[in-house]
Amino acid sequence: MVIDCKHVWEHISGFIDGTLDPAVREMVQRHLETCEICSAVLDSTRNILILTADDRVFELPVGFSERLHARLDEAMREEPPEN
Amino acid sequence: MIAAIVAGDSQLFHELIRPYERSVYVMAFSMMKNEADAEDVAQEAFLKAFRNLAGFRADAKFSTWLITIMLNEARNRLRRSSTAKTESLDDTDPETGSVSPAVLVDWREIPSETLERAEVRSLLENAVKALPEIYRQVFLLRDVEGFSVSEAAEALKISEVAVKVRLHRARMMLQKALAPVLKSMTPARRRWFSWS
Ligand SMILES: [Zn+2]
Q1: Between residues 163 and 192 of chain B, which touch chain A (CB distance below 8 Å)?
Q2: pLDDT tens digits, residue range B11-31?
């Protein structure tokens, strides 16, 4: 069975996560082998996911942890957790 | 460890939360859209978690419990602040129709070293921030903070199917917004320069 590009795009996420049914995965895989566009969509999506998951993106502000734990210490001195 | 803290060993709470500081802050930032408010909301969420630790149920995940507390805190604050822009449209998004990706050929891998450039980092952050809220939350939890589908569903109080649908749409929206820009930022190097 042959599927078109639009249909393949619907499965890009599932393909990346490895959650597609084996038959669908096989179809998508075969399409990707011959379609430059869908291969580029898959590769660029994967690439973007790797970049956005990098710890250098969405960094904690400098001193965040220190300020948080200082505030917690203050609260703990005032009010221990209720039982 | 939680039982010990509730029993009085408060200092252990510092250790307990260390692995979750980043995800709580990142999610708070995605709600509040600025560092100062995000930090405040994150601190407040950890304080609430400490005060209510006895109410934490062992059948839930601590990470998702923290996120739920933070989201409540953020929503309360946004509701109180008259200047905050509401994103009511997001809540009624029918989640129908498909998001088409940017069509391009010949994707050239962008290596992680590119993230040393501040412009690339802010390009990525801004693209995620520009996603509608329901997509942004799922994307950050699952793809940035590494929550499983079921953990994300639990934290956001939505079904696992909704997590998967929203995640797919978020990824396609990001590919559409980012792929053409990233591609143009990294011009293809000519092969005859590659040995230099
Ligand atoms: Zn195709």
Answers
A1: 164, 167-168, 171-172, 174-175, 178-179, 182-183
A2: 899 999 999 999 999 999 999
For residue B139, count other CB atoms closer than 10 A to its CB: 24
* Most A CBs within 10 Å, among B12, B20, B29, B121, to test the A interface: B121
pTM above 0.95, yes or no: no
| CATH code of the domain made up of B112-185 | 1.10.10.10
Residue B165: is it exposed, middle or buried by C-beta count within 10 angstroms (0-12/13-18/19+)?
middle
**Does residue A83 form part of some domain?**
no
CB B116 within 8 A of CB A57: no
Q: Compute, in angstroms, the gap from residue A26 CA to the centroid of ligand 1.
A: 14
pLDDT tens column, B47-80: 999 999 998 987 789 999 999 999 999 999 999 8
Least CB–CB distance from B175: residue in A44, A82, A83: A44
Token code pair at residue B191: 């092969």
Give A41 Cα–ligand 1 centroid separation in angstroms.
9
Per-residue pLDDT of chain A (83 residues; tens, 9 = 90+): 667 999 999 999 999 999 999 999 999 999 999 999 999 999 999 999 999 999 999 989 999 999 999 999 999 888 755 55
Q: Which CATH fold topology does B2-80 show?
A: Rna Polymerase Sigma Factor; Chain: A (1.10.1740)
Per-residue tokens: B181? 């820009």
Write out the residue limits of the CATH 1.10.1740.10 domain(s) in chain B.
2-80
DSSP-derived letter for residue B74 is: H
